[in-house]
Amino acid sequence: xxxxxxxxxxxxxxxxxxxxxxxxxxxxxxxxxxxxxxxxxxxxxxxxxxxxxxxxxxxxxxxxxxxxxxxxxxxxxxxxxxxxxxxxxxxxxxxxxxxxxxxxxxxxxxxxxxxxxxxxxxxxxxxxxxxxxxxxxxxxxxxxxxxxxxxxxxxxxxxxxxxxxxxxxxxxxxxxxxxxxxxxxxxxxxxxxxxxxxxxxxxxxxxxxxxxxxxxxxxxxxxxxxxxxxxxxxxxxxxxxxxxxxxxxxxxxxxxxxxxxxxxxxxxxxxxxxxxxxxxxxxxxxxxxxxxxxxxxxxxxxxxxxxxxxxxxxxxxxxxxxxxxxxxxxxxxxxxxxxxxxxxxxxxxxxxxxxxxxxxxxxxxxxxxxxxxxxxxxxxxxxxxxxxxxxxxxxxxxxxxxxxxxxxxxxxxxxxxxxxxxxxxxxxxxxxxxxxxxxxxxxxxxxxxxxxxxxxxxxxxxxxxxxxx
Length: 469
Hints:
CATH class of the largest domain: Alpha Beta
Strand order of the largest sheet: 2-1-11-10-12-13-14-15-16
Shape: globular
Number of strands: 26
CATH architecture of the largest domain: 3-Layer(aba) Sandwich
Distance between the termini: 57 Å
Strand content: 25-35%
Largest sheet: 9 strands, mixed
Helix content: 25-40%
């Protein structure tokens, strides 16, 4: 069974959420059996995810029973979701019962507040090795998906559980969305170890979040850089959380100052801080820094997880043993490649076990890696990957008479436009579309978009505009 769910203690609590649902490993296995009786066949299913037991049970059942789920956030803008629907024509939806009712959809099967809905689309041929789909930029509804193959999620879950040293006594706190690769790995790596998972929908700033964690003795927390900014703001280092013993980070680069703050707190409080690095294309994690070295190697992502290999493409080596180049990875958790249409779901393994991240990295003389920049046109805002190109497309579709260019870093997206009258509308619009807080965006009005003689945007000129404001 997927993640060896049937081999763990069946009476042990596997999943508990803050909506009131609690499931043992036996309950999960029984639920998977009930889904199997539905005889859904091989097809694509859109899973509209929340951090709750019903959402998780559907995901586990589909992976186990041969369906191919595409994990999407339940709060995703409906217009963007409908666009994906037209591209990938799913045979079913797995979604909250309340949402199905509001959209006038009748459920075929229900479990823990979720229900299965049949669509008008018929199943179509899929590659035999295709297991799951994730978006590359879920916030903008890009049709570009990552194609997982059978064995990817299991290998990463097992290797991450091994490097973290998870036991059946752990209670992993999943506050990151389960449709986000890092949140999904928190779930998978704990379940494969026979541990418990606490699914939390409450916000980190909500006292109910910490009450739930404290009452259920959560042991392991994983956050993105924005998560730790919030923790510092709310005085996390003064909280009484005796059961919490592991703090992990992924989903973006921490500032050295923040990295040192977390590592120092962990050391002084008898906990451990584990910096990690990964991508959807590698089923979440591919690098891990030993917590004993956190203060010695501030800012490092560490070395490859067990079973994997990190290396640099086109590396340049200096006399002191430092090397720089594009970060790349080999391992059993590397996915098959991308899809832009449903026809692409028939494609075979294009990555062949090797993935070039598009991130520039430095390797020190002791073999530890540090991410120093990004080659591609993506940002990680609040830990979620957002496509600059897709954001420009959304804006140009909504406001066809104006020009837009998007730039930025992992702290903020800068949106440039030539139409001053639109400036007040842009942030509320794109914030609603992407489901990201409006503080992630800033608008700049410019008389014209600077371009070179070939018509290409001069990004350096726009960056200069930001520096001068």
